[in-house]
UniProtKB/TrEMBL annotation:
Name by which UniProt lists this protein: Response regulator
UniProt keyword annotations, A-Z: DNA-binding, Phosphoprotein, Transcription, Transcription regulation
Modified residues (4-aspartylphosphate): 55
Residue ranges constituting the Response regulatory domain according to the UniProt record: 4-120
The HTH luxR-type domain, residue ranges: 148-213
InterPro entries, per the entry: CheY-like_superfamily (IPR011006), NreC/VraR/RcsB-like_REC (IPR058245), Sig_transdc_resp-reg_C-effctor (IPR016032), Sig_transdc_resp-reg_receiver (IPR001789), Tscrpt_reg_LuxR_C (IPR000792), WalR-like (IPR039420)
Gene Ontology terms, MF aspect: DNA binding
Gene Ontology annotations of biological process type: phosphorelay signal transduction system; regulation of DNA-templated transcription
Protein's UniProt keywords contain DNA-binding: yes
Keyword Phosphoprotein: yes
């Protein structure tokens, strides 16, 4: 079965370009389009696509609100945000709302296709290091923003340590080297961190690590 995609962007030319790029791949099918967040919510509930390609700055309803409502609806769609700027606070808002990651709109077509396939398979595609840069800037601007660090009490000391390394953008192999563990052991720890904290992926783990103060801007 092909990966079904809903394309959401307020610019008709952008939607047409994305449809053309995605249509060249037999394992991907564009099942619908939407020109604003409100229509995206309705179309996602109707079509239940595997992946929603979501613009963030749109009229009527923005992409952050639309992302949150799509995730909350339980339709099963995963959201991949597309933005013009790599330090876009709206993109961070979408990640907090449950998006599986974001890409820049000038991403090469082959990288976009790879990202869609990864998201459809349940992975996150945004680099944690990019998320870290967003969080560094935004938390520095608003130190009051955050969450109760008590949510981390469910983690063991080793799991907290692993979370710190995830927040630094390190891969399982890099964490294994830092902690003198096998990659399989690190993978187990990462899985437990995500499960205990109720997180979908590593990107949300990075966000939570900053919001709880486990990692401070510029420290990772």
């Amino acid at each position: 079965m092909p990966i079904t995609v809903l394309v959401v962007d307020d610019q008709e030319l952008m939607r047409a370009g994305l449809r053309m790029v995605l249509g060249a791949h037999p394992d991907i099918e564009v099942v619908g389009e939407a020109d604003n967040g409100a229509n995206a919510i309705a179309r996602a509930r109707e079509l239940r696509p595997d992946v929603v390609l979501m613009d963030v700055r749109m009229p009527v309803t923005d992409g952050v609100t639309a992302t949150a409502r799509i995730i909350e609806s339980g339709c099963g769609s995963r959201v991949l945000v597309m933005t013009t700027f790599d330090l876009d606070e709206h993109a961070l808002g979408a990640l907090r709302a449950g998006a599986s990651g974001f890409l820049l709109k000038d991403t090469p077509p082959e990288d976009l296709i790879s990202a869609i396939r990864s998201v459809a398979a349940g992975d996150a595609v945004v680099s944690p290091k990019v998320t870290k840069r967003l969080l560094d800037r935004l938390i520095a601007e608003d130190p009051a923003a955050g969450r109760d660090p008590g949510v981390l009490e469910v983690l063991t000391a080793r799991e907290r340590e692993v979370l710190e390394h995830i927040a630094a953008g390190r891969s399982n192999a890099e964490i294994a080297g830092e902690l003198f563990l096998s990659e399989a052991t690190v993978k187990t720890h990462v899985g437990r961190v995500l499960t205990k904290l109720g997180l979908r992926d590593r990107v949300q783990a990075v966000v939570l690590a900053y919001e709880t103060g486990l990692v401070r801007p510029g420290s990772a």
